Amino acid sequence: MADTLTFKGLRARPVVLKLRRPVVARIATMTDWPLILIDLYTEEGVTGRAYLEPYVVKSMRYLVPALEDMGEMLKGQPLSPADLYETARKSLHFVGYEGLSMIAVSGLDMAAWDSLARAAELPLCRLLGGSVGPVCAYNSNGLWLREPSALADEAVALRDEGGFTGLKLRMGRDRIADDLAALEAARGAVGDRMRFMVDFNQGLDLAEALERCHRIDDLGLTWIEEPILYDDYDGYAKLTADLNTPIQIGENFYGPRELHKALQRKACDFVMPDFMSIGGVTGWMRAASIAGTAGGPISTHPYPEVGAHVMRVSETAHWLEWQDWGDPVLQEPYTLKDGMLEIPNRPGLGLDWNEDVVAANLYEG
Prior knowledge:
Layout: E1 7-24, E2 29-42, E3 47-52, H1 60-73, H2 81-91, H3 100-120, H4 124-127, E4 134-139, H5 151-160, E5 166-170, H6 176-190, E6 195-199, H7 206-215, E7 223-225, H8 233-242, E8 247-249, H9 256-264, E9 270-271, H10 275-278, H11 280-294, H12 304-311, E10 320-322, E11 335-337, E12 340-342, H13 355-360
Parallel strand pairs: 4-10, 5-6, 6-7, 7-8, 8-9
Antiparallel strand pairs: 1-2, 2-3, 4-12, 11-12
């Protein structure tokens, strides 16, 4: 294998899958799940793979061309993730680094890192200086805003999907009494030893958040996630100061500087960057260094395959969020045991596409 890989081209394919358990949050309901599958080709014959999950199906109309444009721009360049990250970001400087710009760069970055690890014939975590091993995960596949009476059986099913010791429960119903009943039903079904993370999905204003969060502050929750709009750092600073339960934010940090800004302003106790907004593996590693210096626990947000590898080399690694929504397009999904996600001893991220599923679910919009 050559010492240096050379960027040859990139293919981005939009896919839409049906969710087994529809997303029902205060701000949105989703039955379809969009994926952009990225294949990064090198002149040396190594192909790196990654995917994006951009929430909104129609966003793929903009992201796929952006990725294809980056692929054209980078042809012939050495495959250095740090250099490609900067070149791709700066190519979109005049339309801003946040939003779709960063999402496209993140997908490119994850595929580039996968290419390097595959060329070295090492799992990504080993290329980054770590070791292959299990990562502590919680199940985020359900417990949406359904009737409280429906959540007991679902909580048991979610626990048993992988022997989980942590579950995420969504709140934000019209009445706080129904949110409390939902937690009681889920906890009653799986027992007091189960860790519960509560997520409001940005569904409250500050007045509602102050009332509702105080009502759940003594219920032994692992964290309260995103009660208000993601960029209201002043509001989050107020909540963080007022509450005993840790406040968790970060899935909408567009780049490591936003994580730094939030920690500086004491806007949270915990952080959970999302790989498509933080800047892929490169952005995560920079963000994790900031969190580690500040002593702030860092958790992942979707992309469990990428998350497992980088958590093995993150100083303040906390919880990995498990969602299996992309599993149908994978030949060999990662496995779970006793609430831990097992990293396979395969080169790179170990992702290969199930082409039959891909072909049956290609997005034509």
